[in-house]
Specification:
By secondary structure, this protein is of the alpha/beta class. The chain is built from five helices and 14 strands. The strands form three sheets. Strands 5-4-3-2-1-14 form a six-stranded mixed beta sheet. Strands 6-7-8-9-12-13 form a six-stranded mixed beta sheet, with helices on one face. The longest helix has 21 residues. The protein is globular.
């Protein structure tokens, strides 16, 4: 029987962060996403990924401790609880990127994975944390993830998550494939003039190199008050051959939907035997504590 899965990605902008309290700003972003989740349910989407840090602005444009107030426990916090209700209501797997508090002062950029019956399956914590370019001061907010690269067995397929800056590091993407991922969602917040030239090149290459589907989403617009760059949208799905199956606009809040034929994974891997032909015994220098001379 064919294994076709209808998948969706959200992309939205954010209100001016200087004009709302943090609770009001958070509620405004949740309110923007709820109609997109409703639309996904009405269209029969079976797996949905929300954008990185979806219930707030990309606050890493500055270094201010007030943004710590956006953290929540996972899965006990109100956002995960709400998304569990949405998952149950629509019979839909939902990937929920949030700002996680493990304990006071220890915070992660996290994505919770919720199954189609509302069951919390687990979480991925962003592993690679940038702090290298004006407007991307993430080490001020996030501790590097410590959960490895889990793959989640959902009702509709095996799901992995990578988050934004992670996508520049092929090792974790390969680990997800080795662990059995069929679809890897990569929620992102990335601006024009910085990484746009890599946006299509890099993530279609991840799909090809690992023989799985990739769904990646980005914000849209210029977020005030920082205005440090334009989030350029163009959220998309890529298949294991690197073909873009569906793509969002550059500047509109929208739901991007594509049907993924998971049987294609076996077809592609029969042609390109990357997993068979790996030589892990020769890769020791990649994880050596010192660079080889």
């Amino acid at each position: 029987m064919p294994r076709n899965v209808l998948c969706g990605l959200t992309q939205t902008g954010c209100p001016d962060a200087s004009k709302k309290s943090l609770p009001a700003l958070k509620q405004a972003m949740v309110d923007v996403h709820l109609p997109l989740i409703e639309e996904a349910g009405a269209r029969g989407v079976q797996m949905l990924c929300l954008q990185e840090l979806f219930y707030g602005p990309y606050f890493c444009a500055e270094q201010e401790t007030r943004w710590y107030e956006l953290t929540e426990r996972v899965p006990e916090g109100p956002t995960c609880q709400l998304m569990q209700e949405m998952a149950r209501r629509f019979g839909m797997v939902i990937v929920v990127p949030v700002y996680e508090e493990e304990m006071t002062g220890v915070y992660y950029n996290t994505a919770a994975v919720i199954d189609a019956d509302g069951t919390y399956l687990g979480k991925y914590r962003k592993t690679h944390i940038p702090h290298c370019h004006p407007g991307f001061w993430e080490k001020f907010y996030f501790k590097p993830g410590n959960l490895g690269y889990p793959v989640f067995e959902t009702r509709f397929g095996r799901v992995g998550v990578y988050i934004c800056y992670d996508r520049h590091f092929p090792e974790g993407a390969r680990a997800l494939g080795l662990a059995g991922a069929e679809i890897v969602f990569i929620p992102s917040a990335t601006t024009a003039g910085h990484s746009e030239y890599l946006w299509k090149l890099e993530q279609t290459s991840i799909a090809v190199a690992n023989g799985y589907f990739v769904g990646t989403n980005n914000r849209v617009g210029v977020e005030k008050p920082w205005e440090f760059g334009e989030f350029y949208g163009t959220s998309y799905f890529a298949d294991p051959r690197g073909n873009v199956l569906a793509e969002g606009s550059r500047d509109q809040t929208e739901l991007v939907v594509a049907e993924l034929d998971l049987d294609l994974i076996a077809d592609v891997r029969a042609q390109w035997q990357f997993y068979r032909d790996r030589r892990p015994e020769s890769y020791g220098s990649l994880i050596a504590s010192e660079e080889p001379r």
